[in-house]
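Working notes for the structural subgroup meeting. M.R. asked for a predicted model of this chain before we commit to crystallization trials. I am recording the input and output together here so anyone reviewing the notebook later can reproduce the run.

Input as submitted:
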Amino acid sequence: MEQREFVTKAKKIFVEYNTYIIFVLLFIICSVLSDQFFTEMNIRNILLQRAAPVCAAIGMLFVILTGGIDLSVGSVMAFAASLSAICVTSHGWHFIPALAAGVVSGAVFGTLTGVLVAYANMQGFVASLAVMTIARGAAFMITNGTPIKLARGTLNILVDRAYFFPIVIISVILIIIFILIQNYTSYGRLVIAIGSNSMAVELAGIRVKRYVLSVYMLSGALSALGGVFIAARASTGSATIGSGQELEAIAACVIGGASLAGGRGIVFRTVIGVMVLALIGNIMNLMAIPSYPQDVIKGIIIILAVLMQLFTGKSEKNV
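Returned structure, recorded in token form:
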């Protein structure tokens, strides 16, 4: 009897905390595999590199919570990064309004996707695929396909050590804000409710379409912010920025326990999902594993994460 109770409790703990357990185990494994991993420089690089994916993943999570998907993330990143770079180089803007212009452009693309999904009744996959193509093409148009080098003291101030790495600070603030929004506001609760049963929410008198529109707008704005972060780190605005970021954002949400059917997902666990992918990529880089095998390994990990989600979903009913 005691053994059965122990197994039941252990299963319950694993079901509830599997994302955190995976992260801790990976962190330990990475520390053992490479003596360069747990160094100040490497940890700092991980935090700087993950600032953009964290923004994209949080935006993606809110879309997924409603039962949707946003494939335009990477392309919106590219357009926003290119636009902000043009603003500071060609027009002499200060980096703050240039950053704001990039974020607004992302919100515009997100609004377009949201309108197509909420009011034209298009599938999120199809609508965001169309916007993905538009945004990437627009990025190439405004840059003429040429990377835009940023002068020192412009957008790259966002990664300046003298200012305590603003992109990391902004990312932490955003994480806190969206944790509060999800847990302590009616907006956060309604977004989850829409993903669980949109018909019931609509019958309760809630204007579901507005909320669906808002999550796509949010995803676009946060993706754009992430794109500007990438441009700041690379000191370059380019139409090729953000390639594959939509898939990484989805993967982070899934690893964090979000259900692609909607109605389930937690901001902090999604952030941990981003960090899990970061640890995997970082340790493979430190071990000099080529990029193509890295993609294969990441794909396998996503499959395992989904299988784990199915396992824990069944376990929740039996625990």
